[in-house]
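Thread title: Can someone regenerate the structure for this chain?

I was given the following input by a collaborator and told the matching structure tokens would be attached. They weren't. Posting the sequence so someone can regenerate them.
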Amino acid sequence: MATTAAQMAAYLYPEEEDPEGAFSWWLSPCGGTDLVPEDIKKAFDIMSTIANGISSFKPPKRMKRHSRKKGDDGNPTDRATPRRPGGGGSGNGVTKPAKKCRVPASKSTLRLGAASNTLRKQSCVNGSTRKDNMVITSLAFAPNAVPVQFKATCSKQFSQACYHYSSVIRNHPSWATLTCDEENASVKHRLDASATATWTNQHKGRGWDKPPKCDRDEYPPAYLLHEKHPAYLYAGLNDQGQMVRLLPAPENQGAGKMWKGACFKPPLEDLTDSEFDAKANAAPNKVYAMITGYQYTQVSVTVTQRPEFTIAAWGHAAAPPNEGLDQNSCWPSNIAAADPGFVLLTYDPWYGNRAPPYDYKQPYVQGANGS
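Best answer:
Regenerated them for you:
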């Protein structure tokens, strides 16, 4: 290796730029050398002239011959501080500049996530930015937890979804407010919406296919339900469970953002970063994980507020006649002209306990079972 270093120094530094000095500097991580300057020069002269092929030295492609000068990072004038082992070197004996890291004070602590349930601390470690994430993944509600409303606005741009929700709430006034349970105050909360599967089963006859780019939108949403809620218990069975309306997919997906984070955000967004940090650090049973190279600490905490979701404002002044069904582009009026309720469950209160004019479990037959 000493021979390779000598050849590299001779290649990079012309004679007037002290190549033997660079050679000596590169040996310093090994504890320096006992050779006096004259002996270093002799050793350098011998090793640097060894023919190529005998050592591992190969002229670097990206560095020109005799392109370096005395005083640069590979051959400093001031050698009071020994060169660090490895020294950030490039493998050719030339020390690379140390990595720089800067985390502005305004970004040393960040709150992340739609529910404000992640606290990220950023710091510099060995020249790189370290990101430690404390994530509250579930909530427990204290016995004396006070109700706090999460108020949403149903935008006019999602009109069919809003007509649907307002109609359902009018038939089920108790669903105007949906109280979060510890079951759905968890990032792992998942419930299957069986009401949507029932809609498909009720419209399974050949030719009555769901129009493209239309979604089966259920209300109340599964995100805000738990296994003991009546809307979940009777979902897909009768009109005491979730109700469904087929509507344009963009409206369903856009309106669904209303309740995103509803069971987390109210108790957490008012916490200062230091309060969040203290509460999370005091939590028992921490779970540690590495996700995409970042350290995550996952915890469950107890809070003194219990969120309640409600749609407090509506973009539409009032639903048009017939609950807005006539304006629904997902109604296949060419084959179900007599039934705008095609988009609903067949036991929806809109039908008034009457059977739909067509049997959607049987094949479509123009003029006989269909228009």
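Residues 281 and 299 are 8 Å apart (CA to CA).
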